Recover the amino acids of this structure.
């Protein structure tokens, strides 16, 4: 029996005395990826026995993760302010501050969608109001502050555009997609209409900013070749604004009848389909391209990193987007697409989650980052 303390000693030390110096804002991606499993499962347009219970359990895990990461990041700022400032001035890390907003919003939304089964509707609504308000405020600040820092302080070199750049500007799109949950809770009239139109404004803000950045990202790939293997999973981040915007227009169309005058209701319903179908088509194209690039990176020696959480939340937004299109078109094809994407999401979440737990126990994920290894160029 004496062997067990010796075997477990390194792991218990890593858990009791974790280093917070290198706990960056990218850790919020684990919260986002976990929460979307719960809310996307609840949004599926099919009934699967036991799925609702599983979603509630995953929501509880996401809530615990949010508290843990918030506590860890608070400790990081208190104990390692020099490193925290360095993160803000690092063009590779600063965009992840958008993940704080999306983590708050995602847990708030899943609390109202599935958490009410445990805590009741009133408590779930109160939690969502607080997290939605805080997440939206943080997201709007990040959508301005991070691009500002990119221009005046970061000055990234030509050809270094990264899908990570999308993180700050996609945060308001998450607010636009989850805001409709609160519209029916507001008093009828001006309050509901203002909330609905505010969500459309954030939809437009995020969409246009995304359209500005996507050409830079694709041009980088075309002119400078594939991303380094460690960054290949970030290609999935492009799915985020695509799936989330499709989700947003469908969710907004659902609550429009009780929030806006009749002449606009049918127009918004039509817009949900006319916008969502083409964008979902492009999302599937990008999913195929990103998957091919990740397979190539795996052949080049891609190892696990927190970037693997990029496989989760963006795919989850495509699940909710496809589910919304299934509701508004009645097409079984979109139902099966949502189910297939959800299976992919759960597989990605389980893989990233298990590897993260392993990395935490070993201490590798909280160690100082190492310089990337040189990669031999492939000819195919």
């Amino acid at each position: 029996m004496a062997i067990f303390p010796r075997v477990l000693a390194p792991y218990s030390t890593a858990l009791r005395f974790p280093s917070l110096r290198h706990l960056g804002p990218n850790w919020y991606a684990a919260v986002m990826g976990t929460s979307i499993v719960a809310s996307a499962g609840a949004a599926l347009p099919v009934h699967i026995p036991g799925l609702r219970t599983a979603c509630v359990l995953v929501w509880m895990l996401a809530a615990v993760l949010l508290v843990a990461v918030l506590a860890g990041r608070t400790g990081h700022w208190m104990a390692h302010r020099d490193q925290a400032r360095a993160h803000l001035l690092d063009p590779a890390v600063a965009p992840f501050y958008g993940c704080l907003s999306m983590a708050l919003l995602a847990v708030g939304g899943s609390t109202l969608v599935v958490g009410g089964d445990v805590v009741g509707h009133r408590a779930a609504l109160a939690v969502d109001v607080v997290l939605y308000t805080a997440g939206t405020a943080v997201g709007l600040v990040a959508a301005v502050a991070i691009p500002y820092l990119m221009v005046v302080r970061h000055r990234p070199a030509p050809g270094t555009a990264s899908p990570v750049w999308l993180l700050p500007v996609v945060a308001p799109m998450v607010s636009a997609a989850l805001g409709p949950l609160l519209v029916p809770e507001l008093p009828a009239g001006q309050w509901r209409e203002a909330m609905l139109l505010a969500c459309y404004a954030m939809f437009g803000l995020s969409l246009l900013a995304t359209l500005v950045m996507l050409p830079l990202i694709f041009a980088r790939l075309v002119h400078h070749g594939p991303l380094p293997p460690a960054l290949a999973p970030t290609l999935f981040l492009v799915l985020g604004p695509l799936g989330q915007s499709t989700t947003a227009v469908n969710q907004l169309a659902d609550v429009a009848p009780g929030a806006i005058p009749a002449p606009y209701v049918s127009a918004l319903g039509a817009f949900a389909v006319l916008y969502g179908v083409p964008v979902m088509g492009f999302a599937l194209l990008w999913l195929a391209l990103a998957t091919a690039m990740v397979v190539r990176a795996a052949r080049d020696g891609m190892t696990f990193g927190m970037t693997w959480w990029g496989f989760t939340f963006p795919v989850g937004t495509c699940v909710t987007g496809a589910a919304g299109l299934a509701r508004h078109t009645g097409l079984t094809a979109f139902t099966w697409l949502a189910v297939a994407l959800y299976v992919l999401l759960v597989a990605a979440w389980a893989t990233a989650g298990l590897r993260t737990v392993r990395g935490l126990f070993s201490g590798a994920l909280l160690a100082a980052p190492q310089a990337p290894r040189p990669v031999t160029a492939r000819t195919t």
